[in-house]
Structures are given as C-alpha cells and as structure tokens.
Amino acid sequence: MKLKVYSPDGAKAQEKDFAIREFEGKKGVQALKETLVAYQANARQGTSKTKDFGEVKGTGKKPWRQKGTGQARHGSRRSPLWVKGAVVFGPRPRDWSHTINQKVRQLAFQRALFDKVTDGELSLIEKITAAKPKTKVINQVLARIHPKGKILLVDESFEKNAQLAAHNLARVLMVDAASVNALDLARCKNAIISESAFEKILARANG
Predict the structure, then answer these.
(1) Which residue, of 103, 121, 137, 188, has the fewest CB within 10 Å?
(2) How far apart, in whole angstroms, are the C-alpha atoms of residue 181 and residue 122?
(3) Is residue 168 one of the residues assigned to a domain?
C-alpha cells in the first residue's frame, strides 16, 4: 500500500510502498472491538466501594416503637432510607480485567493499521526532529501535515528536543514504536509516524 512520506519540516511529501496487510469486508473488526474493550477494561482500577448495612456507623436499636407515633415504621438508623445509612447494591471492589490472546491482539493491530491507512489518517515522516526544544517549532510541522484533530506521534526513540517540544501540545499523544497498540491508533484521529518507527511497527504486526 502507498503512503505519503513527509520531509522533516512537513513541507514536501513523496509516496512509497509498504507491506501492510489488507482486509476485505469486516474481517478483523470483531477482534479489534474485543481488544479495544480489553485494553480499556484492564485500565480500570476496580476499587469503587460503598458501605453496606453491616459496615455503616449507627446503632441497631429501633428508633421508635412500631405503632402509635404517627410516623413511618423503621427498624434501624443504618437502613438505606436514612441519611448516612447503607447503600443498596452499590459498587464493590472487583477485577475488570479481560484476557486477549496474542493472535487476536495481533489481528486487531493489523486491522487498526489498515483502517488508519484506508481512511487517509496515517502519514509518515522521514524523521521527527526539532532544532530547538520549542513547542512552536514542532507545532508548525504537525500543522502542515494534519492541521486539526488529535495526533498520535510515534517514533522509534524520540530526540530530546522533539520530546520537549511536543509533550506540551494538548492534541498530541506521544508513544514509542515498541509500545504503540490498537487503542492508541483508535483514539487519535490522525497518526504521524517516523519511517524507522513504522518499519518496527510493521515487523511487530506481521511477525
């Protein structure tokens, strides 16, 4: 498949062929969905908790007698009906993690790459570099390639100046080639990847 490869300043571009796996129809879509759900589920801490009847403070004594007061019947101040009482069916600590095997995860990654390329949302750059650690410098380069939308910026190993220049941009997510996954590709509108990083990504996807 052909991709645009931009010069380091983002001003010029040329097309090059890359060995990206192609898909027909919806093959790999279910694997991608399951993998994205798993990544997000595995990021959940699962520490939310409310107190049930046996955990809240308060006496177990009946507030007033059953009949004759004109008030509603109550058996305990720890009841969910009372302020500072128990919570009914509230969240409890639990493990939200999902397990996705390697083949499914790899298929999802291949499909995410294919979708990014076919949608015209993935561009390559010869090198991600900045002469000075200034946000303005790297922002000008990114604006020439993708003026709007959240950008996934991927390099094999970010230069110090480029990293300092880009990390403060709200619309940029920086990930190295060894760590980038299907979720990173899915949650950013556009992706700009250095040539060396893309070769490493293809080796991971096709390996």
Answers:
(1) 103
(2) 14
(3) yes
